[in-house]
Amino acid sequence: MTGPVGDDAVGRAFAAVDRRLFLPWAQRGHAAEDRPLPIGHGQTCSQPSTVAAMLRLLDVPPGTSVLDVGAGSGWTTVLLARLTGPAGTVLGVERVPELAAWGAANVARAAVPWARLLPAARGVLGAPRDDGWPRVLVSASPDVLPPALVDQVAPGGRMVIPVAGTMLVVDRAADGSVQLTEHGTYRFVPLVED
């Protein structure tokens, strides 16, 4: 498999987290393939090389708090938990209730109690909190950058999000100003707002 391999924190996280455990039984034989795999309800478990690229762009420091939007099966939530370590916290949110329940069970089995996956609140994009999130990973693609998610990035924080096929890094400075950079083209399932 290309992409995830590496002797950095992301490569080590991939080595520690078995993708098969986050796939439906019928897809587990394909876990090592570098492609998105269906997990039901029109959603996918993203291509490993794409996830690795996103995690490297996100640059997750140990001990930080991360919001994982579109957490699906919980695979990215657990990868993020490996990056934050037990001093951090990871919250995955998933809008499809059946996937959220399955993903929550997968996260619980992964023995990373500092991570959890919850159903997304109806009508709420992400998981707003007063002080924002130092890191936000979004694994579904909106047509335009959602201000509601940008607002959830803490000062000094970063979000990685595919928008209309282009991977964006959204950096919020300490003064609240926002800078966007583009990092290649990718295909994702659409980000649906209820």
TrEMBL record:
GO-annotated biological processes: methylation
Organism: Isoptericola jiangsuensis
Similarity comment: Belongs to the methyltransferase superfamily. L-isoaspartyl/D-aspartyl protein methyltransferase family.
Localization (cell): Cytoplasm
Name of this protein: Protein-L-isoaspartate O-methyltransferase
Gene Ontology molecular function: protein-L-isoaspartate (D-aspartate) O-methyltransferase activity
InterPro entries assigned: PCMT (IPR000682), SAM-dependent_MTases_sf (IPR029063)
PANTHER family: PROTEIN-L-ISOASPARTATE O-METHYLTRANSFERASE, PROTEIN-L-ISOASPARTATE(D-ASPARTATE) O-METHYLTRANSFERASE
Pfam families, A to Z: PCMT (PF01135)
GO cellular component, one term: cytoplasm
Annotated signal peptide: none
EC number(s) reported in the record: 2.1.1.77
Key words of the record: Cytoplasm, Methyltransferase, S-adenosyl-L-methionine, Transferase
